[in-house]
Amino acid sequence: MSTNLINEELKNEDIVSEMRKDYRMGELKEEGLLESPFKMFDMWLTKEIELNNEGSEPNAFTLATCSIDKRPSARVVLLKHFDHHGFVFYTNYNSRKSKELTENPFASMTFLWTQKQVRIEGTVEKIDRLESEKYFKTRPRGSQIGAWVSEFQSSEVSLEHLKQKTIEMEKKFQDQEVPLPPFWGGWRIKPYAFEFWQGKSGRIHDRFKYTPNDSNGWITKRLSP
Ligand SMILES: Cc1cc2nc3c(=O)[nH]c(=O)nc-3n(C[C@H](O)[C@H](O)[C@H](O)COP(=O)(O)O)c2cc1C
């Protein structure tokens, strides 16, 4: 496209500066912090699920990665498992995010919940193929076929190609279980920092950061909002 669009009017260009929300749903006190940030995450996730907000996806988070040439990129993915070993999501290993995680194995996760934010930073590793296989089996057949169709996630493609490939894959796996594609699986983010942010009235929000101590535990610090 070569048209000069620089003077084009944008309907909301000034409206966003007026948008303001007062957060009044609670506070996070030092006494309310649990010793384990995993337990804390679990507790806040439960609260978000219980709120059952229309349109909210409590297990969706923004995953930030950074290429070897220091260019960050971010996108939303779904958390599919977590325990004390880390946080697991599934994707295509040929995708932009996977390339960046391979080049530079650090990631940051951000959950935006109702007047809350959780940030997690960690190192990453590909999960066991058996673990990916186990999860892949639980996906609906359409999603399993979809994984095979989108072999080169994040590269340019035509709709025609996607349609053709869907027909081809449906035929290939007719009357059989769809196997896990070799280019698809999970990544585990192993946290070295957590931050819990609770919005409060007057912009004096509560922020607490967890970092590891020397004895397999965690220390917490309040951060300036
Ligand atoms: C709510 C939501 C959930 C998503 N979940 C996933 C997911 O779990 N895995 C995935 O690969 N992409 C997921 N996507 C698509 C990604 O945001 C992204 O478009 C895709 O993974 C390609 O990203 P990349 O080019 O940075 O690798 C999701 C998108 C949305 C909006």
Automatic annotation (TrEMBL):
Keyword entries, A-Z: Flavoprotein, FMN, Oxidoreductase, Pyridoxine biosynthesis
| MF annotations from Gene Ontology | FMN binding; pyridoxamine phosphate oxidase activity
Cofactor requirements of the protein: FMN
This enzyme catalyses: pyridoxamine 5'-phosphate + O2 + H2O = pyridoxal 5'-phosphate + H2O2 + NH4(+); pyridoxine 5'-phosphate + O2 = pyridoxal 5'-phosphate + H2O2
- Write the Enzyme Commission number(s) for this entry: 1.4.3.5
Q: Name the Gene Ontology biological process terms.
A: pyridoxine biosynthetic process
InterPro entries named in the record? Pyridox_Oxase, Pyridox_Oxase_CS, Pyridox_Oxase_N, Pyridoxamine_oxidase_dimer_C, Split_barrel_FMN-bd
Q: Which residues form the Pyridoxamine 5'-phosphate oxidase N-terminal domain?
A: 56-159
Subunit structure, as described in the record: Homodimer.
Q: Which PANTHER family match?
A: PYRIDOXINE-5'-PHOSPHATE OXIDASE, PYRIDOXINE-5-PHOSPHATE OXIDASE
- HAMAP family recorded for this chain? PdxH (MF_01629)
Q: Which family does it belong to?
A: Belongs to the pyridoxamine 5'-phosphate oxidase family.
Q: Please state what the protein is called.
A: Pyridoxine-5'-phosphate oxidase
Which lineage ranks, top first, belong to the organism behind this chain?
Answer: Eukaryota, Amoebozoa, Evosea, Eumycetozoa, Dictyostelia
